[in-house]
Amino acid sequence: MSAYLPSPHNLLGAAGLALALMLFAVLGAAASARREQPEIALVAGWGLVCLVLTTWGVITSAPLRIPLVVLAVAGVACLARPMCRQRIGSLRGAGRLLLLSLPMWLVMLPLRPSQIDTWLNLLPNAAYLFDFDMFPTALRPPSYSFLPVAPYNTQFAAYIASVVSSGASVASGGLADGAMALFSIALQCAAALLLARVVAGRDGTPPWWACAAGLLLAVPLNPGFVPRVSFASYGEAPLAVTSLFAVWLSVALIEELAHDTATPRSAQGLAHDAARPRSAPALALVLAALVNIKQSGIGLLLPIGATLLALVLTHPRIRRGRGVGAVLATLVPGLVLYLLWRVFVVTSGFVAGELEPLPFAAWNFPLLPQIFASIARAIFEKATFFLCLAAVLLAWVPAFRRDRWSRESLLLGMIAGVTVLFNGFLVFTYVAHFPPGMAAQAHSYFRYSTQLSLLVMLGLAVALRPAVARWVIRQGRLAGRAGVAAIAVILVLPVALVRSLRFDLEPPQPTLWQLGHQAARDISPEDRVPAGEASAGGVSARGAPAGQAPDGGAPSRRLALLVPGDTDDAVGSMLRGVLMFTPPRRPGLDIRTETKADAPTLDALAAAGYRLALVTCTPSGLDGIPTHVAAMLRFGDGGWRVLDAWPYPDWLTHTHFAALLAREPLCATGSPN
After folding, report:
1. Does residue 146 contact residue 122 with C-beta atoms inside 8 Å?
2. Total domain count for the chain?
3. Tell me: the pLDDT tens digits for 116-169?
4. Are 219 and 225 in contact (CB under 8 A)?
5. Residue closest to 223 by CA, chosen among 340, 383, 330
6. Is the same domain home to 516 and 436?
7. Angle at which helices 92-100 and 38-59 pack, to 10 degrees?
8. What percent helix, strand, coil does the chain show, rounded to 5?
C-alpha cells in the first residue's frame, strides 16, 4: 500500500514543480499578449526559460542558477506590479480543471522513474544540471548519461523543481527524480484546458462539463495515450502538447494577419496593435519550447513552419511580405535555439554525446520497401489511432469546400500539412539515422506518431463539434446528464485504473528498487579507490567516463555491477539509476557493468581495483557464495566474500516482466504463467 502513497520526497518534488509551473505561467503572461490564456502562457513561459537557460549554459560555464534567479526575480516583480498582473488572464478555468484532475494527481504523485531511456539519459542529464549547474562537456565533471548532450528542455523543469525543493529535502539528496514525469502530466492538463475551450466553443471560462470533456479527450479517450510513454519522462507527450499549442496559435496568427490586412488603413492608425499580431510572441516561445525537447523536435518545428507559411502565402487577404515576415519572426527563436545547441554539441568534445546520423554511403535507401511495409504493419496493429488520424485528414475536405479560410478549415489544414510532413521526416530518420535492423522494423513508429495525438483530438473536436452542438440542442436534458457523467467518469477513472496508470509498479521494477536501496546501504563513504589505483576500463551508463570524482579531485567510490545476460542494459541502467539518482543518493559512483558473473570476471574486477561487486544473480561454482540470489560481495584476503545476500521471491519466476527488463539477470528464467 505504501507504494501508492506519496513520500515526503515526492511531495517536496511536486511542490518544487508547482512553483516552477507558476514561474513559467507568470513569465509567459508577461512575454505574451495581454491576458493570454493561462495554458498558453504556461507553455510560452517554459519556452522563454529554455531560451534563457540554454543560451547562458552554452556561452558560459557560470552556474545556471544565476539566470534562474534573475528569471525568478523578474516573475516576482511582475506579480508585484499591478500593470503587469493585469496581463495575466483569468485562472478560473485552470482552477476547475485542477479540481477535476485532482484524483489523477493523487494517483500519480508517488510515480517513480521508469523506462529504460529515463535511466540511460533523461534522469542522468537532469541530475547533472542539479549537481553541477551547467551542461556537460568532455572537459567538465563526468556525465553518467548515454546521451549527455541530448536536448535539455524537459530536464529544465526537473532542474528548477530540484533547486526549489533541495533546501528542504537535502537529507534525501534534493533531486526531484519524478519531476519530469509530473511535468508531462501537467502539460497534458494544459492541453486538456485548451481542448475544453474548443469543446465549449468559447475562449472564456469553460463550464465544468467542458473541463471534464477536455481531460477525457487529452488522456483516456486519446488513442495515442499509453501510460508508460505519455506519463513517463519521455519527450512524446511534451512534443504532442507543444505541437497542439503551436498549431492553435498558428491559425490564430493567420486570422489576425487576414483581419489586419482587411482593416482600412485609417482604422489601422487608430488601432496600432493591428500591426503586431497578438499570437506571434506566444507562438515563437512555444516553438522554442518544442524544438529542444528531444532531437526529433526539429522534425515538428519545420512541418509546422512550412504548413503555416504555405497557408499564409495562399491566403487571399494576407499581404505576402507582411505574412512571410510574421511567420519568419515566429520561427527565428526556435531555429536560433536549435542552431545554438548544434554548435554546443559539436564543440562539447564527446565522441558520441547524442544520436548520430549515418554516413551518406550507409544510408538505408535499399530498405525503403521494408520500412514502408513495417509502417503499414504498425498502422494495422494500432488501427484505432490511425483511423482517427485518417478521419481528421478526411474531415478537411468538406471543410475546405465549405469555406477554405474558416477557422475549422485552417485548423484541419494545419493538422493535415503537419501530419504529412512529419511522416516524411520519420521516413528520413529511418533512412539516415537508424541502423539497418531498426530501420527495417520502422522502430517505434507508433510511439513517434503519438506526438501528433493531441492534434488528432483537436481535429476530431473541431470537426464533430457542430454535430454534437445540434444534438445538445435537441436533447437538452440528456445532454445535461452526459455532462454530469463526464465529470463523474473523470473523477473515478484514475482510481479505477490505478494499476494501469502506475506502470512503475510493473514487476520486476519494485524488486529492483528494493535491491538498489539494499545495496546502497552497503556502499559507505569510505569505499573509495585506494591511492594510485585508476579505473581500468570502468564505465557508467553504457560507456560514460568513470573513475573521476564529481569535483575532479579524489577518485569516487567504485562498484562492480554484474548483471548476467543483460544484453540491453535495461536491468543494469535501472540499478545504476536507483543508486545514483534516487534517495538515498550515491552520486559519483564509479560503476563498472559486466554481463557475466563468473570467476574470471570477478578476478579481472579485483585486479582492476574494485572491492565491491553487486551480483544480481549469483551462478553456481563460486566458492563460498550461495547460488541464485542477489549478493553484495567484498574483496579481501585474496578472495571475494559475501557481504549481504537477498533471495528473490518465488513468485518472480512466474510473473510477466515489464518491457525490455530481462529475466536472466534476476534468476527468473522460468516460464511466466
Report:
1. no
2. 2
3. 999 999 999 999 999 999 999 999 999 999 999 999 999 999 999 999 887 644
4. yes
5. 383
6. no
7. 90
8. 65, 5, 30
